[in-house]
Amino acid sequence: MSKAVSTGTKVVYPPGCKELSEDIGKDELVRRLKALARAFQDMSQEENEQYSGLALTLATEYYMDHSSKDVRLLIACCIADVFRIFAPDAPYKEQSLLKEIFMFLIKQLRGLEDPNTASFKRYFYLLENLAWVKSFNICIELDDNQEIFCSLFKLMFSIVNESHYSKVQNFMLDLMTPLITEADSVSQELLDIILLNIIEPRKSHNKVAYTMAKDLLRRTSNAIEPYIQAFFNNALMLGKTSESEVSEHLFELIYELNNISPNVLLAVLPQLEFKLKSNDESERKSVTRLLAKMFSEPHSELANQNKPLWKCFLGRFNDISITVRTICVQYSQHFILNHPTHVREITEHLKARQHDPEETVRMEVVGCILNAAKKDFLSVSDELLEFIKERTLDKKFKIRREALLGLGALYKRISQREPFDAHFMERVTWIKDKVLHAYYQQSVDDRLLVERVFNTCIVPYTLPSEERMRKLYLLYASLDDYAVKAFNEVLKAQLNVRNCLEQLVDLLDQDLYDEGKAPTLSMINPKLVTLARCLPDSVKALERLKKFSNTMWEDQRIRQVVKILCSPECTCKKAEDAVKEVLKKVGNPNPQNVYYTTVKALLERTAPVMIDKMAIQMVVHHVSDVVVGISDMAEGIPKAGEKGMQLLLALSWAFPKHFDADEVFGQLIVFLKNEDDIIVDLTLQIFANTGHNLQERFPAVFSSLLPVLQSLAKLGTPKQAKHAIRCIGVICENKEAALTQVFEHIKKSLNPDSANYLTSIVALGHIAQLCPQEFASDIKSIVSKVIVKELLMQDRTEGPMTSESWYSDHRVTEETQSKIQALKMLVRWLQGLKSNATNSGSSTLRLLHNVIIHDGDLMEHGKINKPELARLRLEAGCCMLKMAEEPAYAEIVTREQFQTMALLINDSCYEVRLRFAQKLNKGLLSLRLPLEYMSIFSLAANDPLKERRVQVKSFLAANIQKRREYLRQNPSAGAKMFSLLPDYVLPYTVHLLAHDPDLKTHDHLEALTNIKDCLWFILEPLMTKNDDYNYNFYRRMLQNIKQTKDVQGPDDEEMNKKLYAVCDLALGLVLTKTTSFVLKESKAEPLLPSKLFAKPDKDFSNTDSYLPKEFQFDAPKVQKEIIEGLIPSAPQRLSKIYKPVTQGTTTTIIVESPKPVINLTARTPKKKDLEEKLKAERKEKREKEREEKERAKREMKEKKAQNKGKRRAAQDSASNTEGESSPEKPPPKQGSGKRAKTITVKKKGDAPFMKPIKGKGSPVKSPITQKQLKVTRSKASPRSPSKSIRVNFKKASPLKRGRGRPAGRANSAGPSPSVSSASSQSSSPKKSTVNGKKTGKSTQESVTATRKRAAEESPESSPGKRSRTSDTSVDSSPVKRQRGAAHTGSRKVTRAELAKQSESSDNQNSETSETESSQNSRPSSRLRSAPPPSPASKTVKPTRSTSKESRQASDSPSPTASRKKQTKITDILPKKTAVTRRNVRRAGTLSNGTSDGDDVQTPETDSQESPDKAEALSRAIQAAGEDNSEQETIVIRRRNRRK
Fold first, then answer.
1. Average pLDDT of 1458-1464?
2. Is the pLDDT score of 687 beyond 90?
3. What is the 3-state secondary structure (H, E, C) of 44-83?
4. Of the chain's two ends, which shows fewer C-beta atoms within 10 Å, N or C?
């Protein structure tokens, strides 16, 4: 306003409007502004120029910053109209003024927040005006437009709410949309303001703002797309995320944008493929979850639009990260439900993931498929259901539980679906079988789960009784055979638990349950233990059951309820109520209450919530309707009537009291008159289970039933006769009177021409078993005359010709059937007698034995064909097994009979092998057959079919487990340990295999190989996976057998040898297959059956081996603390004495050997290395040795050729090179650390020469004359702190007096310098030899002169100086130590110089000897190089040789030296050529009784004997080291001569 006045601008007001000024009061100002606002609203755009001054006046600070909001609102409305009136050119030209105006307008728009205010209409008008005119578009041209836009957008998203009607939101969108679509750019800040509203947490807090942001993005998708792409490019590819507030929500933002406007992400999604392959697991996880959601959304076409990204996503199903794989599986159900076109690909990946090594992934697969099936069963394919079927066998129980519970729930939902869908039911009909198959699992948890699923899902106990039994009947009729067996086991297990709990309650009712009644506690505890084994985690369950028993004893009401629960009168409704009542008193049902969980599991297995008396009547009614044919309930089910009767039979065994009803028994009698023999037979079995004391309880039923039973026993089928006689024995009080009529009829019908011949034989056998004494005389006469002579010993008909080894039952001739039944009749008769007083048992066993021997043809007439012969010998073997179940007959079975019967398990006919093994297993599992019959299973190792071997091994494992479990459950059975403990089957097995017909001699290789397989076949389940395995027990048992003789032939040497050979095989297997030798101490000495083995002779010790050489057993590597014994091997087996050393509960086996321990493998024993590794190492060493030797020989020849012309000149110039050091050589290889043998030469007036020889034992000394030595002096070397004398052996061609042989390559543990010197001439007639030439002086004189000259001429002889000698190796050329042109010659060495050099050598070699003697590694076959010591480490100040310190240093012995003080020289030879003590003796060097520790002195005047001894030693040394270098050296340590 002031500006307008100052510029002379005239302010014109519309008609009717008063002038505005700062002096006007607030109310007046408001009235004038209202009038002005109305005028502007009515004003058009035609006449606007005159009001420009007014417009500028309204935009002054006074009005826009006025304290009254009404003034500000009216000003804003007026300015908004100004923009409309002056459009398109606003009267405001300055950018700063425009910015202030629009910021002012934005502030006024906040009034839109509350629609309920009085001034909301004016705010709405302001919004509408701005949106309609697009006034904010003017800001696009401003430099600070993004600041204005950001303020506007923030305000709009913050004030919008649910109370705004749609027009407000639309005008807001109309106001904001042009600012994006028409703007030149969109800043990141503005983009963040929009995007923040579509992600959490704002998405949930202000859903209206979320909706408005979605609409805004859809309207501006084309314009905003480049900015969104640029943002994601920076964030995903370049990692520039610090500029944006939404950078931490990238993947959530992508998901929301994809749902809002997929087009904006067309260029962004391909970038996610790189993120899927990122090394960062968290990043891969986030991208995988994002894409899984995007791909699985309903109606999503992203997978089809972006194939590479889809393929890359599918690859994450195989991601290394468990979390990533889990995410993929979790979202699979959405693909199954929403995208049928992609189900095939998802199924393939789920197929792999259901075998995932991680259990959580497998669990997710199960949950994913089950959830999809629950929501839409049609979308789940049969292949996906197969995955759930496989997971019911998962190794983890929680996965099996999830699969079974899910399948049970699915089956229940579909079976109860209304309307019923037959197609759906057909797809899930396998579920009931699969659930029951899970009952074969050994875990109690699995069995409890199956029972729970069956009662709650398969046949829900909550259904009405009639419907429940109808469903049960249809279910049972459609089960497969394995499921039927499982259902029967369910009933059996529940019956056992119910009976045990009932017995416990009866004990508690005695009111003797207190701490002072030990006998009662001893009766209660076994019941609790039995119940605990029926529950998960039996150890902890036992403690909780003790608590529950205390509760029952204290609370009489709980005890009564539990007793009602176990009683036959308990109905399903009562059982349900009783369980609920008990559980209420136990505690709260939560997972932490383990006591509640245990009691609930016990009651679930006890309560008869499925079956009661009413239920049985319903089942009988349904079966009757089906059998008669008046009901179509079981239409389409084959043999529905027969299966219904089988269901009644199973229920009659588990709930016999529930059949006590006249209606039920009456209907069962009707079934007995049915024409179907199977139904009649099943009905008879039901009566046998339920008819106890029927004569007393239901006399009317009894009077009607007995005639029917007698008729069936006379005229029915063999099976009907069998069960009819059993029923008579059950229901009648006087069974003898009822059976007399039947017996008389049988005697008349025992004629092959009778129509009831087979029935009569069967009935006769069962009568003889049921009433053995009443008809004893008649039956014995019938057996001898009719059964044996007229039937078994006669072949009246010939069987049909066939090449088959077995055929079906209906093809068997009637005569063979009669013979089979006759054999059974004999056994039943003997079972009734239970005694062999009349030798009937022995005669029958001989008869059965002959049948087996003759392959079923007892009389050998040849009229019976192969299939029927197979049946006859099978029946004979089964009859022998049946007889052996009676103790009276098991004792009279001879060994020959037993061995013949055992061979039936190796019969040529498959059916014979199969059925005999099954019969044997049945008898052993019932614990009726003696333990020795388990040894027959060992012969099954020779079965040609793998499935047969596997089956028999499962039989064997089941029997072992059964017996061990029985011993654990019945501590009182410890007295019968010998007949129950499965480990005692070993002596029987050894004896049986020793009498194998194929074992002709004890060294028959092929037979022994088969026997070895048989032994391991039975030893494997005994030894492996057995916590009670005791190696000491088995070893002692087998050793005891070798100290006895075979009772079957005690004087037969070959028979006993075969027994011992089998024992040796078993011993070898036990030793080699045992993995742990720390064993439990055996409680008693193992016993041997006296009927197999004679009493052992205490004076007899059988330590020989009876196995051929081909049977060698290698013992496994055992722990260090176990001392391993020798393995029995041929041809010589060392005796072994084992001492058990008790340490707590374990025993450590210590092996003592009375003889020298011999390594049977003829190798040096190594503690840590295996044999094969040592072989490879030795071979590699030998190859390296050979290469080094060849290289050394080549070098020797080259050096010899080079030095041949220079040798004479080098000897002449020796005096000019005194004190110079010799050229450096590689350091000698360090020895292996073994104790070295030494050869010591002591000569009067000289230092002794010591030769260490590599090998074992004490040092060996041998004289070496100076004639054989060439003494050389080494030049000073910086590597060694002292000087030494090195004596070089010269290789002599033909052995002559005064010439030596090489003693192998010299070696020392430390550096050993040498001094070269030519041999002096001797005045003795016996001339010494130097370099192959004779000299005129004796060796002694030459050496003396040399030492004197060396002492006089040595420049290092002054006592104050330190000297160093070179560490040189053996030089293959003649004496040559040269640096440049200087080398040693044949000058004399003075005694002083020699003394000083020898003294230094003493110090050095003393240290070397100690170092070598302390090493204890393997012998090396070659010299080893040792790193040279530092010059300062072994520096010794030379002193006079006559000093006391020198004597002490030189005389101190090493650990391997003799007790007498002496000087040593270490010279380790190669291992294969080591000179041992024996070699030296053989060479004649240790003569005249000289001991190893003595010094062998060579007298000064002995010129004849010394060369001979030295020559002999040289010959031995040369034999040990012929392939060494031409010139060998040994280190000489000088010792002060004792005068």
1. 37
2. yes
3. CCCCCHHHHHHHHHHCCHHHHCCCCHHHHHHHHHHHHHHH
4. C
Q: 51-65, 260-274, 447-461, 555-569: which has the highest mean pLDDT?
A: 447-461
Q: Which residues contact 290 (CB under 8 A, 6 or more apart)?
A: 251, 252, 254, 255, 272
**Cα gap 1461→1455, rounded to integer Å:** 12
Annotate 133-167 with DSSP letters as a single string: HTGGGGGGGSTTHHHHHHHHHHHHHHH--TTS-HH
At 714, list the tokens.
């006379």
Q: What percent of the chain is helix, strand and coil (3-state, nearest 5)?
A: 60, 5, 35
Distance of CA 338 to the CA centre of its chain: 40
Contact at 8 Å (CB) between 74 and 122?
A: yes
What does 892-926 look like in DSSP terms, one character per residue?
T--HHHHHHHHGGGG-SSHHHHHHHHHHHHHHHHT
Q: Which amino acid, residue 339? A: H
pTM (two decimals) = 0.67
Q: Is 187 helix (H, G, I), strand (E, B) or coil?
A: coil
Nearest one of 478, 599, 592, 578 to 536, comparing CA atoms? 599
Q: CA 1329 → CA 639, 1264, 1270, 1333, 1530, distances in Å?
A: 116, 15, 9, 5, 19
Q: Which two tokens stand for residue 1194?
A: 């080549």
Instruction: Tell me the pLDDT of the chain averaged across its residues.
Output: 76
* Block residue for tokens 């403690």: 543
Q: pLDDT tens-digit profile of 1225-1274?
A: 344 433 333 333 333 333 333 333 333 333 334 333 333 333 333 333 33
pLDDT score of 1537 more than 70: no
Helix segments in 196-220, DSSP class H: 202-205, 207-219
Q: Is the dihedral of CA 1349, 1351, 1356, 1357 positive or negative?
A: negative
Distance, CA of 577 to CA of 227 (rounded, Å): 70
Long-range Cβ contacts of 90-99 (<8 Å, 24+ apart): 90/138, 91/52, 91/55, 91/56, 92/55, 92/56, 92/59, 95/142, 95/143, 95/144, 97/59, 98/138, 98/139, 98/142, 99/139, 99/142, 99/144, 99/147, 99/148
961-977 pLDDT, tens per residue? 999 988 887 877 777 88
For 642, the token pair is 């027969």
- Spatial distance between the Cα atoms of 606 and 499, rounded to a whole number of angstroms: 9
Alpha-carbon distance of 231 to 1082, in angstroms, equals 79
- Structural Rg of the chain based on CA atoms: 55
Distances (CA, A) of 803 to 12, 40, 807, 865: 132, 121, 10, 9
Structure tokens at 1177: 């190492």
Average pLDDT over residues 1403-1422: 40
